[in-house]
Design a protein that fits this description.
It is built from 3 helices and 13 strands. By secondary structure, it is mostly beta strands. It has a domain of about 120 residues: Electron Transport, Fmn-binding Protein, Chain A (Pnp Oxidase, Chain A), CATH 2.30.110.10. Strands 2, 3, 4, 5, 6, 9, 10 and 11 form an 8-stranded antiparallel sheet that branches. The longest helix is centred in the middle third of the chain and has 8 residues. It is globular, with a radius of gyration of 16 Å. The model has no long low-confidence stretch (mean pLDDT about 90).
């Protein structure tokens, strides 16, 4: 067996899409967006998002159109954006679907149900939002626009970001 220092299926640097390479150099917060309750809970790691201040404040997400989360984000439906800290790094890949989660992703971490969806007890911060308009295709992902209805800030903790294919602890 060979151990690779890089992912064995990633094209060599010179053959990669320049736009994806540029995007990979833009540090992004690592979040897990969740919706539903009980057996209908769903979640997805999302790093492409913007929070826009205003009255009302809005959150814009780029979500994989084939994800279970995308299927649940209809107009007026609530969801949660859980901002991960460094201590929650182990949740990012299972919720992205790139690492195993025996028994399901919600067995990882401690979760509590809110009117917006599941909230990670150790999240650095979280917001509850409601989908404002029908999600639409922008490139390959769906653009989800939602109105922010609730915000909670957790205890001060190092933030987790994603840059150039790696998680980085900003603490």
């Amino acid at each position: 067996m060979t151990i690779h220092s890089d992912h064995p299926f990633v094209p060599p640097e010179g053959e990669r899409d320049p736009l994806r390479r540029l995007r990979g150099r833009l540090p992004q917060a690592v979040t897990v967006c969740t919706a539903g309750e009980g057996r209908s809970r769903t979640g997805l790691t999302v790093s492409s998002l913007v929070v826009a201040d205003g009255d009302p404040a809005r959150v814009l997400l780029l979500v994989d159109e084939d994800s279970d989360l995308a299927a649940s984000l209809e107009v007026e439906e609530p969801f949660v954006v859980n901002v991960l800290g460094a201590r929650d790094r182990s949740l990012a890949d299972p919720f992205a679907g790139t690492a195993p989660a025996p028994g399901g992703v919600f067995r990882l971490g401690a979760w509590r149900q809110t009117p917006y969806g599941p909230v990670l007890e150790t999240a650095v911060a979280w917001l509850g939002a409601r989908v404002a308009v029908e999600p639409r295709q922008v490139g390959w992902p769906l653009l989800v626009e939602a109105v922010v209805e609730h915000v909670e800030i957790g205890p001060e903790a190092p933030a987790l970001t994603h840059v150039r294919g790696r998680y980085v602890d900003l603490g």
